[in-house]
Amino acid sequence: MATAVRDVSIFGEAIAYFNEAADLLELDSGMRRILTHPTRQIIFSIPFQRDSGEFEVFTGYRVQYSFARGPGKGGIRFHPGVTLDEVTALAFWMTWKCAVVDLPFGGAKGGVTCDPATLSSSELERITRRYAAELVEVVGPDKDVPAPDVNTTPQVMAWFMDTYSMHVRQHQPGVVTGKPLEIGGSRGRVEATGRGLTICALDQMEQMALDPAKARIAIQGFGNVGMYAAKLFAERGCRVVGISDVTGAYYNEKGVNIDDASAHAFKHRSLEGFTGGERIGNAELLTSECDVLVPAALENVFNAENAAKIKAKLIVEGANGPTTPEAAGIFKERGIVVIPDIMGNAGGVTVSYFEWVQDRMGYFWKEAEVNERLEDILLTNLREIRAIASKRGATLRTAAYTLAIDRVVKALKLRGIYA
Ligand code: NAD
Known about the structure:
This protein is of the alpha/beta class. It has 2 domains: 39-173, 3-Layer(aba) Sandwich (Rossmann fold), CATH 3.40.50.10860; 188-419, 3-Layer(aba) Sandwich (Rossmann fold), CATH 3.40.50. It has helices at residues 10-24, 29-35, 84-100, 121-134, 154-168, 189-207, 224-235, 258-268, 282-286, 325-334, 341-344, 346-361, 367-392, 396-415, and strands at 40-49, 55-66, 72-79, 107-113, 144-148, 216-220, 239-245, 248-251, 278-280, 292-295, 314-316, 337-339. Residues 148-151, 193, 220-226, 244-246, 282, 296-298, 318-320, 345, 348 line the site of nicotinamide-adenine-dinucleotide.
């Protein structure tokens, strides 16, 4: 087990948000100490064989941040930038995300430092199976339940579930969520994060008198979250004027045709070569003319340099940690409303929770039922956050953390600290 990396770190920055809410809650120093330490950090080597026969070793991580409210819950990220610090921050955010939507889960996250773009499907399968095998003792439906994150797909979840089930000699679909429908996935899970984001965005737009038929939306990232959010915004009659992925950004004042963009992205595995909008720089997309801006790629997108140039009135965070604390301060000063990541992208984990429930019952719901329950959970908690924000004069982010921390603290106090 390793200790947390705390200097100049994503986790360090994440704690800044925690502290603001902890101050509002007048949390004592002991409780702060407990809540700013991960329960368990696991680092391991993943030796695997390339298709060429050569052996390589990647590093795998699983951070189980909190079990106070239930089993760990959080995705697995395959990306060259994965570090212990990043995974710890993501597990920390999962703790508050699960609590803010009142799910009976703690928080966890995992990752492998690798570049899936350079891996064949069989190489990816071998890495996934070895990753799962290393975690057999510490994951499980009542221990810790992984899910997809950046570059991990329902297929990756299927390999994970199969490997775990082989090791425990039992069919255990509830060990991961985000699985294909055929093996215990939930209807509506693939779109859930994007759907949840649009539910929150449209509710907030109503509060801000932003007419969906007139509002211009820009979305950074065109993967699971960004693409489905774009589709659902378009379905609700909104104009998505800007989209981007790692290969470039596209702007179209009249509205990008999202079906064309999705078809292009599916066919070419990226937006490269898309002709449905003017090609602009990735950074330019963030400061383009729009009313609602959705970061749905990676963390630290808004910083002290670009925060003053953002033109949107509302930011809905699809990605985890896209706003640095400096940028958050600038947005607050400028009156830009931000639905924070732990609320804005909680639709994914909420339907993951539904998947876990369905797997345990062995009984599966219709998609309409999934979507209805999702909307109910998200709007109930978003409204609670808004009430806290207006009562305490806080941002929606601080209010969301306040609600989440309060719930975790209550659970911890009831259980008692086994010291
Ligand atoms: P994904 O891999 O499906 O998509 C990521 C997208 O971001 C891709 O289109 C990629 O090209 C793009 N991207 C990467 N770097 C970029 C850059 N510099 N500029 C513009 N685009 C860039 O991943 P995802 O599952 O959509 O996750 C995106 C974010 O949402 C992550 O922060 C993730 O943690 C968060 N999230 C995902 C889920 C989920 O259910 N998938 C749930 C909650 C939060």
